[in-house]
Amino acid sequence: MTGEFTIGQGSATRLVTLPLMFDLVAAPLLFGWLLLRRGYAPSLRRIFCVYALLSPAIALFVAAVSLVARSAAGISG
Q: Alpha-carbon distance 6 to 16, whole Å?
């Protein structure tokens, strides 16, 4: 895997590079830690914790599906 994720089908296929995918996942986590301090509603902190757990899981799932689809289609790289 070259660190690229395929989005779309056919001629409308776009590649999301690994650094961009990392930033899409890491940027909200980087600033979301501020919500874990005292003074914010517990429900908001719970929502952030769920997001912090799910966003990397979803990114890994999309990468795995993309890799499987590319290997099934015989696309290398």
A: 7
Torsion, Cα of 72, 61, 21, 24 (10° steps): 150
Q: Please tell me the total number of residues recorded for the chain in this structure.
A: 77
Q: What is the pLDDT of residues 30-66, one digit of tens each?
A: 888 888 888 889 898 888 888 888 877 887 788 788 7
The DSSP symbol for 1 reads: -
How far apart (Å, rounded) are the C-alpha atoms in residues 69 and 54?
22
**C-alpha–C-alpha distance, residues 70 and 68, integer Å:** 5
Q: Distance from first CA to last CA of the chain, Å, rounded?
A: 6
Hey, CA dihedral for 14, 12, 6, 55, is it positive or negative? positive
Spatial contact of 28 and 51, defined as CB atoms under 8 Å apart: yes
